[in-house]
Structure formats: structure tokens, C-alpha cells
Write a structure and sequence with these properties.
about 40% helix; 6 helices; globular; Cytochrome Bc1 Complex, Chain D, domain 2; alpha+beta; 4-stranded mixed beta sheet; about 170 residues
Length: about 170
């Protein structure tokens, strides 16, 4: 009897979870996500031209055309955050986007570049994290054939990048 009750409770919870995941986002959720993406400054790394001082908002969040080099780690380019199924987040579920925001891990198991501030985003409420995902999924899909995968520090990047320079710490007197 307890086993049947537990199984029924678990089945109901899973069904409710699947139903809420399948429900379309509301206009309010998308608006909240847009607001959050703005204050989280996602565009700084994920919109082409931003690193050159001329963001191309016609390709908003479509992936950076200029990467950055982190000494000893590698070269990284801000990914396409639009729902394009080939070069963006189109095949990711909202839950997978939330997981990447909060843990720094992509659905394929790769870890995001250290510059991605997922450690700060881990504190987002469920409501806010899902609002960000809903907004990203609501964007028009943009194909970014120029998107470049991260490369190791000892490899030669095939696209423009900017170095990240860490100042030397002066010795204590």
C-alpha cells in the first residue's frame, strides 16, 4: 500500500513537472527575462561587435565575433544564445539553460569558460532563472556560421580575440 502510494505521488509529481515545462512562457515571464538579461549584461559577451565598441543589435545575443584569451586556459567566444537549432540554444530545454546558468555545465557536459559568471547566477531564484530561459527561447533564431569553439592555450585561434591581461601584483614593502 505504501509502495503504491509512493509510486502514485511520484508519478503525479513527474506529470506536473512535465506539464509545467511544456507550458508556454507568459508575456510577463518573457518581459522579466528580458529585464534580467539586460542587467546581467549578457550582451557584452554574446552580441557581435560589442568587444569592438559597435554592438550589432540586429544580431542581439547571436554570438560574439571577437573572443578573449585567458592566459593558460585558452581562447573563448561568447556563444549564440538565440534558439537557432544549429549554432544556438535551439535544442536546449529551458531546464538545460537554467542548469548551465547555475552550474556552468552545458547539456553535452562541457564546462563554460571561467569568465561566464555562473557562480553569481547560481543565486537566481527558480522564477528568475526560468524567466531568463524563457526570454532566450523567445528570441528570433539567428544562425552564426562564424561561431568559433573554444581552443586551448597552446592552439592557434582562427578568429579575432582580445587578451585578458592580469596586472602584476607589487611586492609588499
Amino acid at each position: 500500500m505504501i509502495r503504491q502510494s509512493l509510486a502514485a505521488t511520484l508519478a503525479a509529481a513527474l506529470a506536473a513537472s512535465a506539464a509545467s515545462a511544456a507550458e508556454p512562457a507568459t508575456d510577463a515571464e518573457i518581459a522579466r527575462g528580458k529585464y534580467l538579461v539586460g542587467i546581467m549584461d549578457c550582451s557584452a559577451c554574446h552580441t557581435p561587435g560589442t568587444f569592438l565598441g559597435k554592438p550589432d543589435f540586429s544580431r542581439y545575443l547571436g554570438g560574439s565575433d571577437v573572443g578573449f584569451a585567458i592566459p593558460g586556459l585558452g581562447y573563448f567566444w561568447g556563444a549564440n544564445l538565440t534558439p537557432d537549432e544549429v549554432t544556438g540554444l535551439g535544442t536546449w530545454s529551458q531546464a538545460e539553460i537554467v542548469t548551465a546558468l547555475r552550474t556552468g555545465e552545458r547539456p553535452d557536459g562541457r564546462v563554460l569558460a571561467p569568465a561566464m559568471p555562473w557562480m553569481s547566477y547560481a543565486a537566481l531564484t527558480d522564477e528568475d532563472a526560468y524567466a531568463v530561459a524563457a526570454f532566450l527561447k523567445s528570441l528570433p533564431p539567428l544562425r552564426n556560421d562564424a561561431e568559433v569553439a573554444p581552443v586551448g592555450w597552446n592552439e592557434t585561434p582562427s578568429a579575432p580575440y582580445q587578451p585578458v591581461v592580469f596586472p602584476e601584483v607589487a611586492a609588499a614593502p
